[in-house]
Amino acid sequence: MNLWQYILRRLFYIIPTILGVAFIIFVIFNLVAPDPALIMLGKHASVQQIQELREELGLNKPMWAQYLDIVKSAFTFDFGRSWTTKQEIISMIKQGAIPSMTLSVPAFVLSTIISISISLVVSFYRGKWIDKSVVFGCVLLMSVTSLAYILFGQWLFAYKLGWFEISGYESGFPDFLPYIVLPVIIWIILSIGPDVRFYRTVMLDEIYQDYVRTAKAKGLSERVVLFKHVLKNAMIPIITFVVIQIPFLILGALLLESFFSIPGLGGITLNGVYNSDFPVIKAMTILTAMAYIIFSVITDVLYTLVDPRVRLK
Amino acid sequence: MMKITSLLAALILTTGFVSCTKKNKDTGKTINIAVSAQIKGLDPIYANDRYSSNEVGRVYEGLLEYHYLKRPYTLVPNLAESMPVVSEDGLTYTFKIKQGVMFHHDAAFPDGKGRELVAEDFVYSIKRLADPKLQGLGWWLLDGKIKGLNEWRTKYADLPSVDYTEVVEGLKALDKYTLEFKLTKPFPQFLYSLAMPFTFAVAKEVVAKYGEEFLNHPVGTGPFILPQFTQTKKITYTKNPNFRKKLYPSEASEEFKAAGFLADAGKELPLADKVVVNVIIESQPRWLNFLKGKVDYIAIPKDNFDSAVTPDRNLSDDYKNKGIELLINPSLDVTYTAFNHDLKLFKNTDLRRAISIAYDVVKSNELFYNNTALPAQSVVPPGIAGNIKGYVSPYRGPNIEEAKKLLAKAGYPEGKGLPEITYDCPSNTVSRQIGEYFKKQMAQIGVNIKVVTNPWPELQKKITKRQVMLYGIAWGADYPDAENFLQLLYGPNKAPGANGSGYDNPEFNKLYKTASIMQDSPERTALYEKMNRIAAEESPWIYGVHRQNFTLRHSYLKNYMSTDFETGQEQYLNVDVAAKAKALEKL
User: Fold this and answer.
1) What does pLDDT average to in each consecutive run of 10 residues of chain B (587 residues)?
2) Which residue from A85, A121, A258 is facing B41, i.e. has the nearest CB?
3) For B392-395, which contacts have Cβ atoms below 8 Å and span 24 or more sequence positions?
4) ipTM of the prediction
5) What φ, ψ does residue A306 adopt, rounded to 5°?
């Protein structure tokens, strides 16, 4: 099977996955979530108005028809309008995507590079004080709640020292920089602990393999072994770990967006949940599921590039 | 490793400089506001929360408004030329509207120039609120009140489209500048509806041009312009250059005169050039932005209360030195725990009184409101007619001994024979804590409470379906009239109406029916007070508190006061630019 056949076949999996996702969100929304008509009408809601609004929102349609609506919107990308803001959801997503990506892409890239670099260094010095100190530091970083970093960071660097804006967002480079750098730094600090521990474990797993011993026996230096052999062979778990996180970057970081008033997709999703705004929740869930499948395929393809032993079937 | 550190340091320094250079840009008369919730959009008929209605009020206007500097709250003409002529039977209201009022320029109008507002615009705007296809969230205001409007709404509910040209008997433009309302029954509170954003004037050309996106293209007659609204965290309004000649008031209540609120008397509105609304959902960044002078006023977040306000209710010196001022004003609201009067158990007045008098509202005020609220004696809050100054309910506690006696009198000595009583409340942390505290207090007299937390819509649903025993909730005034509170206990308003507890007292009902159609008068106030006493003595609810607003403002912000009806307020606000520049140096 060639590469393109494999990709096409994997992308076909989107169909059953979306049917399944549509079913799950349909069940959750109809059985668990509160009645959106009640939320939207507020304290003066009368039974008649609730009924009228339910009719207007399509909530009185038969169950199968509501399910089909979700499936249809998933395949046509026509998610309709938000029940709360009455805006087209696609345009809301377009508006929110850039601020989210402005935060999450640099934060993710930087945190990945920094974490892999630190992991390589500590693998090089495994068992030494530097390795122990970094592991201890990682545990320490992970032991503090993310909220503490945000609150302290905002208070110290933005309020007391005045290095950054406390919150807000301006579109366009470099206007967004004063708003984005602090949340990016906090994101990196939050990621470094778990990421370094993961990458270090992956690299140490490789270091104790036979081929490493062979390479060393051949007289290759520790540095060459580490960067040329170990890193290359550790790429499969690293790629899996990295690429699988990408779909969730679309949502940005809910907490960071909220505290730094970044008008991204995280806030849109969160408001959708608060307001039982089903079309918004539906759109974000389906898009995330699709992105997850697409990036899974990309992961598999990347495997073949980094490890010739991997075959696509 | 070193390279990465250097890179980060460089990035921090660069952005630090960028942020420093930005700091000095804003020197104009800009009002900086922070709000804690997302803005849904700017369509008046959907403005059912304070955040959206405040945004609507910057762009749109209504026939009436509250006088900015008078208390008690007083309605005055806004787009109306004068207060309406009311027929003797109290059923017909005739308004003359101001001539020469222009809508903002917009592509929806010929040549993009805003046209003159006419009486027909109000007919259209109010029909829009009643339009069954649009599901306007303020329909409750007019439901059953204007002759022929309900019939018009019902007729088009099942038809594919709505005909706005069809004449409604009670809603007519008699000529270009004359508007007539005919009511189905006398309802003096009707005038308050005309000061609420739901009934503000929109132009049908704009609605037609933007269709479903109308809420993102606000075009009104108001003091500020926002050509396009996007769901963002920062909304910037600019002064409407064609705003009609509207002047800052020259009269004020004594309290405002004394506080210097007349310094801008007679000046043309709006006084500021820009209004910037920052949506900051979390309280810490909102607070820090205020302390940095990037937000001009703020309701003190709960977590910062003790650092800002001393135990004797003064502002701490640290803040005073920074030119910050504290404003305290009572909020027109009441928190309460309602009994479900459908249940036989709670038809027992002595049981209700026993539970009510066992409740320690003073301690509760300390624990949950930083001791800033006023313990409620009955349903009507201070500040409006119907509240009895100095009145103390005989069934307000804490008085555990008296509660025990009443419980025994009710037939449940030491709680024996009482079933477990469920207490439903919203699922937020404070409501749950209040519930747990209530449970603990009731245990002192042998009443066994089980706290049930609910998402807000679920609680509403349970109340509507009568699936609760006791529930904790609050009510904020829609307009400054005791009727808006007393209706909560009026029998015929039983759930799904506003009377969620289902209290039904023939004497109370009779008084309400009489008073609710009376014009404001000492006689009506006497009836309101009588109802308020009944509501206290019969204990249909366990009364909580009337909350108070504790607000801070920077002293360079002129004319700002904390108010319950803040729609349109920013047109009166002014900024002392020189004082602001000095103040920012200290912050």
Assistant:
1) 44 44 56 91 90 95 96 93 94 96 96 96 97 89 94 91 95 97 92 96 97 93 93 92 96 93 96 95 94 95 88 91 92 94 95 96 90 93 90 92 95 94 88 92 95 82 88 92 95 85 96 91 94 96 94 96 93 95 88
2) A85
3) B393/B536, B393/B537, B393/B543, B394/B536, B394/B537, B395/B353, B395/B356, B395/B357, B395/B536, B395/B537, B395/B539
4) 0.86
5) -90, -20
What pTM did the predictor assign? 0.86
**What residues form DSSP beta bridges with B425?**
B453
- Rounded Cα distance, A218 and A209, in Å: 15
Q: Is residue B496 reached through a cis peptide bond, with omega within 30 degrees of 0 on the bond before it?
A: yes
Beta bridge partners of B385: B387
- Asked if the Cβ–Cβ distance from A181 to B12 is below 8 Å, we say yes
Nearest to A259 among B139, B143, B282 (CB): B282
Pairwise CA distance, residues B324 & B291, whole Å: 9
| A contacts of B475 (beta carbons < 8 Å) | 43
Residues of A with Cβ-Cβ distance to B278 under 8 angstroms: 167-168, 261
The answer for B 481-500 residues in CB contact with A (under 8 A) is: 496-498
Q: Is the CB of residue B424 less than 8 Å away from at least one CB of chain A? A: no
- What does chain B come to in residues? 587
Considering only the beta carbons, identify the residue of B281, B284, B496 that sits closest to A47. Answer: B496
**C-alpha dihedral sign at B222, B226, B228, B232:** negative
Are the beta carbons of B138 and B53 closer than 8 angstroms?
A: no
- The Cα–Cα gap between B514 and B517 comes to 6
Task: Region of B559 please: left (phi>0), alpha (psi -120 to 50) or beta.
Answer: left
Give the separation between CA A78 and CA A88, rounded to whole angstroms: 9
Cβ-Cβ contacts under 8 Å for A10 (sequence gap 6 or more): A293, A296, A297, A300
